[in-house]
Amino acid sequence: MIVAITGIILILFVVGHLLGNLQIFIGPDWINGYSQHLRDLGPLLWVIRSFLLASVIIHIWVTIHLAIENRRARPEAYIDRHYVKADFASRHMVMSGLIVLAFIIYHLAHFTVRVTDPRFGLLKADPLGHYDVYSMMVYGFQNYFVSGFYVLGLFLLALHLSHGSSSFFQSLGLNDKKLTPRLALGGRIFAWLLFAGYTSIPVAILLGIIKPAQQL
Amino acid sequence: MNFRLRIWRQLNLKSSGKLVDYDVENISPHTSFLEMLDVLNEKLLGRGDEPVAFDSDCREGICGTCSLTVNGEAHGPDHPGAVCELYMRRFRDGATITVEPFRVGAFPIVKDLVIDRSALDRIVQAGGFISARAGSAPEANSIPIPKHDSDLAMEAAACIGCGACAAACPNRSAMLFTAAKVSHLSLLPQGYPERDRRVLKMVQVMDAAGFGNCTNTYECEAVCPAEISASFISKLNREYARAQFRRRLGE
Amino acid sequence: MIGTLDAKIPPGPLAQKWRSHRDHMRLVNPNNRRKFDVIVVGSGLAGGSAAATLGELGYRVKCFCFQDSPRRAHSIAAQGGINAAKNYQNDGDSVYRLFHDTIKGGDFRSREANVYRLAEISNIIIDQCVAQGVPFAREYSGLLANRSFGGSQVSRTFYARGQTGQQLLLGCYQALCRQIAAGTVEMFPQTEMLDLVIVDGQAKGIITRSLRSGKIDRHAADAVVLATGGYGNVFYLSTNARGCNVTATYRAYKRGALFANPAFTQIHPTCIPVSGDYQSKLTLMSESLRNDGRVWVPKRKEDRDKPRGEIPEADRDYYLERKYPSYGNLAPRDISSRAAKEVCDEGRGVGPGGRGVYLDFADAIKRLGEDVIRERYGNLFEVYEKITGENAYKVPMRIYPAVHYTMGGLWVDYDLMSNLPGLFVIGEANFSDHGANRLGASALMQGLADGYFVLPNTLPNYLASQMGKRPPPDSAEFGEAEGCVCARIEKLLSVNGTRSVDSFHRELGLLLWDKCGMSRNEKGLREALQKIPELREQFWRDVRVLGSDQDYNQALERAGRVADFLEFAELMCIDALERDESAGGHFREEHQTPDGEALRDDERHAAVYAWEFQGDGQDPKLHREPLQFETVHLAQRSYK
Ligand SMILES: Cc1cc2nc3c(=O)[nH]c(=O)nc-3n(C[C@H](O)[C@H](O)[C@H](O)COP(=O)(O)OP(=O)(O)OC[C@H]3O[C@@H](n4cnc5c(N)ncnc54)[C@H](O)[C@@H]3O)c2cc1C
Ligand code: HEM
Ligand code: SF4
Ligand code: FES
Fold it and tell me: Could you tell me the distance, in angstroms and rounded to a whole number, from the CA of residue B162 to the centre of ligand 3?
């Protein structure tokens, strides 16, 4: 249940975050303004951040704990194993979750703390005096490795959510026999839409559809 | 038909086991899987080898005694159905078939393919009943129950207690088994009075027995011979949340 | 010398006997109940309900079963339903009518007083089960539904899909679990009773073997209840589960308990026919199918192998409807089974080996639609398809009779106590209320009546005089019994011959099916009586059981059971020979009406035959309990 609730919080964040990021397609002013709005929240931003952080930690702590129990419940593996219904995503939640975690850490270091790329410090404020997030994203994603890892991270997130985003209905007892298959399908569609949304940004940048607003 | 069998042999819980290869020949396609093992055992006996131990009783899919993992699937490839309802016509002539026990930490191996499922009994003992002393019952038709509820309760009650759900679950969770009993009893008005207590205690004992945690992979539902729907797990989660909430309120 | 038995039937008018008996039985004070240990062997409907109820009352109960969980007792397999005289259908049912149907169905070979009590109790069983949460089928009104069953013209059978036995047993099992948790019942799964211990002529304990570890244990108690089910597996192939056996009751017999009517076995008309040599069991198709299915075979032998579609209506012989117009396809089991055998013997049987008749749903599907049929029998059709690979919505089912139920069992008096004081026998294990033939949906009723309502009333009547008389388990009698058990196990392991246990069992089964099955005659029975001892002798010379007695050894388990069957089979044939009449499931070819119906001989055989063990190799001694019919009129059964 805790996993489900923290999972939902994280999903909400991921959706919100995507909507924010997609503003890059509208233009530098929008996204830079959005970023500034977030910053202007001041202490509230930190409340939200710590809330999300707490969710992530609890989510991970509980799932790892459960996973250890599960391992203990299974002293010996089958020599020959064939699954009938459990798909890849549902069987590898910890694996996909952990890679997503690694990705999140890198991602924060990259864009929030900005320690991985020295060039980000050189970016000037945009005409409205906002930090130029737009250009930062563009420069960031112009690197194939950065984009590649980003896409991989998102791929695993999508995999994670293709199961997780319908699974929480079951964990919270919110579905029934008729609803379950529809939710499962909906969850899968949702997860892959998310993937498409997020990856559209680096793809667009790499294809040169989006160009930096300022030159370095 | 001829088959090569790779069967798990293990003397007892303490010793370690391994897969051993055996061949069986001239099996009619209408032979059941367990009868095929009977044939193998006759052959082993003739050679002076100890027969393979495996459980079965009713051999018609209702008692829940039989418990084999065939080619990596609990109860074998013919779902829904217990392995005693599996017939050799389901296999290719000449196929190699792997036979393992239900491997669940909470079901220790007794010998070869036989396991100890007393953990499931303990879950029911924890509260899987309606306390109705013999002699104290009201007239049967004094409690009308909507057909829909009663039919749904019957669907849940059909569980044969085989433990395949836990065996197939990547996490070795016994949620489907527990959910079936909780749902059966809480769908009926007779079961309301003990509803909260029942679900809390059953889940507590289930966890203590060393089963894993449900992550909704639905593998259980896929192998369940009684076609118990995983939506009952959702119902269990709901019942559990409700009971916890009410208990908190009560305190 | 033939002894006469007294069933201790209470005086008074039939309808008042049970009530007035209860008014006068001795009771055990609630504080004293926990001072009594009661052993219940068996956790089926009878044993499970008895153990749970005695636990509720406060006795200290030890319950044993050979399965790994009490929930797996063979009662779980019962499909069709359970009778009760509720008259919810307003179709004229009553306690008297259920009583009368049961006596008549049993071909007037059961005790009036017991059967009346059974019919009386039938109603509160349904109440009890509903209160426990048994999900019986219901109508849209939310009230309970009924179906009809063979041998009656009213609709009085309660059912839970095709899994009535399962649901009733789970109800019992749950009640039992509640008592186990409460500490009043101690459960011993996978523990087999191998001997009964008699101290001063009273049953005071048992010797058991743990199937898991091989450990032999002594259990002393104030009373022993056997609820170990039927012995249909003496035929090897039957609808019973693999583990069903005669061991507990047979060992009690060897300790002096009388075995009543062992020849009375029931052959069920609707089973899936045998298909191969290695078949290990036969699967029953619930008789409820006969509500909507029509039984037929081709009129001419030549049409036997033609598909159904090519046999026009005019060339079909709906033989049950033809011979028994008023009951038609719902004629009682013994009659339907014999009729099937008859048409197959004439060479008109269908399917492999010509051992099958059609059970056809085409008309019902036309009349009611496939959905209704699916709703009523869906799971049975699935089972059929699984086993045969045929879809019975499209082609007719093939069915053939198979051994199903055993009316015989240990003799008990009205209180369900055997001739050995302290030994009570309930459920299918006793010689029961079903006479020479059991009606469908009555065994579940009897098992639960015995366990929930009769025994908990009659057992205290015995216990009240037994305060402080429980012997210690280290007394000489226990030592002697344990010695016998160990010696026998050792002997089984030491033969080290060449043949498997199953091969002997199969051979015995074929012999009995042939000579002491659906129909019997003197010559065949005498032959069997000659062959059985030979087979037994061969068994003890040539059986091969590997492994040790110190661990889980399934072959050893089975060997012990088959050894008992090999002795018991002889008793069955002796009884069948002695009962020189036809009655219900016991059809002696010498005694039939011109049109082939069973012909009773009430002058000579209106009695229960109970056999007393006299020592190995000696003929058992016969005791008779004459049956008095004060209420019903003895008549030839007619289902025409
Ligand atoms: C396929 C099938 C369908 C049926 N359908 C119906 C139906 O629709 N309606 C109906 O009324 N009846 C039906 N019957 C009959 C009915 O199911 C049985 O007669 C009844 O369930 C017997 O119950 P029981 O408690 O006496 O014995 P069982 O349920 O057979 O229980 C026997 C118990 O004794 C234990 N036991 C046996 N031997 C030993 C030993 N040596 N040591 C320790 N424990 C031992 C076993 O472990 C088990 O717990 C059916 C029977 C079959 C086979
Ligand atoms: C943005 C990040 C994440 C999101 C949005 C997210 C979301 C979710 C959701 C919605 C569920 C389903 C909950 C349920 O069915 O009860 C879930 C389950 C799970 N998550 Fe995450 N998660 C994230 C990160 C992680 C991480 C970093 C881990 C690393 C351990 C992880 C491990 C798991 C596991 C093991 C489960 C399955 C457990 C279960 O269903 O009970 N997740 N996640
Ligand atoms: S839920 Fe299904 S798989 Fe699990 S124990 Fe019950 S019948 Fe077996
Ligand atoms: S042996 Fe009974 S379910 Fe398989």
Answer: 5
Domain count, chain A: 1
Q: What is the ipTM of this complex?
A: 0.97
Residues of A in Cβ contact (< 8 Å) with B216: 90, 163, 167, 170-171
Q: What is the 3-state secondary structure (H, E, C) of C50-77?
A: HHHHHHHHCCEEEEECCCCCHHHCHHHH
Specify the length of chain C in residues: 640
- Domain membership of residue A58 (yes or no) is no
From the CA of B43, how many Å to the nearest CA of chain C? 10
**Could you tell me the distance, in angstroms and rounded to a whole number, from the CA of residue B72 to the centre of ligand 2?**
27
Q: Do C241 and B144 touch (CB under 8 A)?
A: no
The CA distance from C97 to C122, in Å, is: 12
Ligand with the closest atom to the CA of A61: 2
- pLDDT, one tens digit per residue, over C134-175 is 999 999 999 999 988 877 889 999 999 889 999 999 999 999
Taking the CA atoms of residue B81, residue B86, residue B87 and residue B92 in that order, the dihedral angle to the nearest 10 degrees is 110
In a domain, A56, yes or no: no
Given A66, A71, A78, which is nearest B72 (Cβ)? Answer: A78
- Per the structure, the count of domains in chain C is 1
Closest residue of chain B to A168, computed from CA coordinates: B216
Rounded CA separation C367/C294 (Å): 13
Predicted local distance difference test score (pLDDT) of residue C97: 96
Q: Enumerate the residues of chain B whose CB falls inside 8 A of the CB of residue C139.
A: 147
Determine the structural domain holding residue C375 and report its residue range. Answer: 268-404
Residue A68 within any structural domain of the chain: no
The CATH architecture assigned to B3-111 reads Roll (3.10)
Three-state SS for A23?
A: helix
Ligand 4 binding pocket includes B164 (Cβ within 6 Å): no
Is residue C553 assigned to a domain? no
Q: Within 10 A of A16 (CB to CB), how many other CB atoms are there? A: 11
Task: Quickly count: other Cβ atoms within 10 Å of residue C14's Cβ.
Answer: 18
pLDDT computed for residue C2 by the predictor: 66
CATH architecture, domain B118-250:
Orthogonal Bundle (1.10)
Q: What is the DSSP string of C604-616?
A: HH-EEEEEE--ST
Q: Vertex C310, ends C305 and C314: CA angle to 5°?
A: 105
Burial (0-12, 13-18, 19+ Cβ within 10 Å), C451 = buried
* Cβ C598 vs Cβ C333: under 8 Å: no
Note whether A177 contacts B229, CB cutoff 8 Å.
Answer: yes
Query: How far is residue A35's CA from residue C459's CA, in Å, rounded to a whole number?
Result: 84
Please give the model's pTM, rounded to 2 decimal places: 0.94
| R_g of chain B, CA atoms, integer Å | 20
Find the CATH number of the domain harbouring C318. Answer: 3.90.700.10
Q: Is cis: bond before B144, omega within 30 of 0?
A: no
Domains in chain B: boundaries: 3-111, 118-250
CB within 8 Å: C178 and B129: yes
